[in-house]
Each structure stands twice: as structure tokens, then as C-alpha cells.
Amino acid sequence: xxxxxxxxxxxxxxxxxxxxxxxxxxxxxxxxxxxxxxxxxxxxxxxxxxxxxxxxxxxxxxxxxxxxxxxxxxxxxxxxxxxxxxxxxxxxxxxxxxxxxxxxxxxxxxxxxxxxxxxxxxxxxxxxxxxxxxxxxxxxxxxxxxxxxxxxxxxxxxxxxxxxxxxxxxxxxxxxxxxxxxxxxxxxxxxxxxxxxxxxxxxxxxxxxxxxxxxxxxxxxxxxxx
Length: 226
Ligand code: CTP
Ligand code: CA
What we know:
alpha/beta, eight-stranded mixed β-sheet, 6 helices, about 25% helix, binds cytidine-5'-triphosphate, binds calcium ion, EC 6.3.2.5, metal-binding
């Protein structure tokens, strides 16, 4: 654990990481969100800081406090996260998209609290922008790391996302697995690059997972595709 941190493998690098779950509001007091705790994104921020990087975290709703010694940008929705990330993209060397971004948002955001009435309520949802895919399209030398949360056919879905979104690495976790995924303090990930499996980690603390992932990123830097 101390091995990667003490070697300052990311000295002089600017790392941008997203964390948490976005919040998509449909009236002043109600919203849609997901189970992301922000722990994985914050662990990456903290580990990168200790490895010598200059770190910016763009964080949506989280359950845990943000680490110190990093620049923290708070956002709420996918739209706000998109804006915050794009405006900081040009100066980033490494971008890690650990946030759980809502795939859909309510079409309408009512100015006053919705009143109940007889019968059912239908919420109309529209797609959000895929931030990672947008970063993939606009890549200009950044090393881009995406995440993939899967419940089945992990490798196939992860590789598909890697190619579609033009990522250099994709970190896949099977969210149905014990000790992996949302909420907990541990994770068990498989990392893929364009050629297939790049790193397979056992159940580890999120901090240690972050260090191992960033160790791989450091070893790949310079080989990033344009
Ligand atoms: N992502 C994003 N913007 C979105 C949706 C997802 O940037 N609107 C990013 C996530 O931050 C993650 C990656 O895309 O790094 C994969 O997210 P995931 O939910 O696993 O995949 P999706 O492409 O959204 O596909 P699906 O949910 O249908 O599996
Ligand atoms: Ca999704």
C-alpha cells in the first residue's frame, strides 16, 4: 500500500476525478438519484494526492466527507457535472470517471411542489449526456479511465463501453458480488484496456484498489491514445 504512495508515481500530473451519484430534481424537494456513496472516487482522489498528483474532484451527492489536499468542486446533476468536467478537461493529464451519473433525468422540473391527485403519476424521463463518451470524443492527449458497473457478462459489456467511449482503461465491477460495488469500503475490480484484461484485483479496500489502479495508470502514461 505504501509502496505506490511513497514513490510519487504521479508527481507533476493533473488528475481530474468524478465521484458520487448525481441528483436529478423534478420539484423543489424531490429527486432521482442512485446508491453511489462517493467512496471509490474519493479514494482515488486521496491516493492520487499521495502519489504526488495535483487533484481536482468533481463530486455529486456523497455519503462520506471529501479528502483534504484536493480541489473540490460540488455539483448536483449530470448536466452540472458535464459542465464542471468539460471546463477542466483541457488541463487534465488523467481523468477518472468514478461517478455514478444518472442515465435519465426528469423532462420537467416543476417550480412548486407537486400536489397529489387521484390515480397514478407518470414521470417523463429523458437521456442525460454521456459525460465519459463526450470526453472520449474530445480527447486531446488525456489518459481517460472509465468505470463500468455490471450485473452480467462483465468483460463483454466493459470492453464494449471502453471502445464506444474511447477510454484508455475501463474499471469494471460486478455490483452483485459480495465485497464489490456501491456503498461498502471494499471493491473487487477488473481493469480492461483495448487488448482485453489488464489487471484483475481481489477484494481490497477502496483505497488499495485506487492505489493499484493508479499504479497501472502511471505505468501506462505516455502510451495514451490521442
Ligand atoms: N457515464 C457518464 N455519463 C453518463 C452515464 C455514464 O459519464 N450519463 C460514465 C460513468 O461515470 C462510468 C461509465 O460512463 O464511468 C459507465 O457507466 P455505466 O452506468 O456502467 O454505463 P452506461 O454507459 O451508462 O451503460 P448502462 O448503464 O446501460 O450499463
Ligand atoms: Ca448507466
